[in-house]
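W.,

You were right to be curious about this one. When I first looked at the sequence I had no strong expectations either way, so I just let the prediction run and decided to look at it fresh. Below is the sequence, 334 residues in total, followed by the output.
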Amino acid sequence: MKKQLIVLTVIIAILLPGLTACKKKAKTEDNLQKVRVVLDWTPNTNHTGIYVAQNLGYYKDKGLEVEILQPGENTVEKIIASDQAEFGVSYQESVTIARSENIPVKSIAAIIQHNTSGFASLKSANIASPKDFEGKRYGCSGWPSELEILKQVMESRGADFKKVQIVYGITDFFSTIGKDVDFAWIYYGWDGVQAKLRGIELNYIPIRDLDPVFDYYTPVLIANDQLLNSEPELVKAFLEATGRGYAYCVQNPESAAEILWKAVPELDKNQVKASLEYLKAEFISDAPQWGIQDISVWQNFADWMYKKHIIQRNLKAQELFTNEFLPNATHTKS
């Protein structure tokens, strides 16, 4: 037995340098760390900074080779938590719900600084305020906070939520507005600009103007706790390159639109251009830098979700997001 152990030790001693050399050689040949980013939905202008960073070599400059994926049937949060991708695009609401269910994901950057969604209707419907929602049909897409938000903005203005007819399962604004429904929730940077291109006049009520608590982050970038704890330099490198991508979108929206359209040619080129022309003022907005998140935005919305029983556990904002991996992290708001 002792002789066999000596022989095994000698064999390992001979092979180990070779194995180590092969490993180092593979790293030298590749020289890039493979990283997967899973989107929240099909590619759109919210994701442009990621495509720009990939196309212009910003990720390669940081030693990364980034693959952009679509989520499929599973949620982005579960994909990230189970290490099927390093980074993902999500929403403040989704991250909060996931964390309340002990799914270990955290937001690491706000892609857009303010909520650019709201209620939209045809101008001919004469819906100018939540009071006008009474007696109208609302197209509900079914995400968790949707109807509670609608109810609150109505009741805060003396309107009766019970007088709204809820039409469930609405996912396409243009095929249903004015036909099956009278008003619906849209992201202005996509559907709003598309309406303009089509010559459709809308009345649009931004949700952030109705109640400050609803000026939450949508979308955000997320990662799981294990990655954040074990590979902080990777996270920093990814965010620095991604931030450069979004800064490029702000300074060069037309060129950024061309990059996205070439990567995803099935998108409408004119819509992509118009969308980025709108979003260039929203990616950073009034923040000191791209990606920064405010602790009060996270805490206020989490408290509201708990109060409305959308989540069953009261959460602290620090469980939900971090700014520590952003460039110049000492100047962040957490």
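Here's what jumped out at me. The chain has twelve helices and ten strands. And, maybe more interesting for your project: The chain has two domains: 30-113+217-331, 117-214.

Coffee later to discuss?

I.
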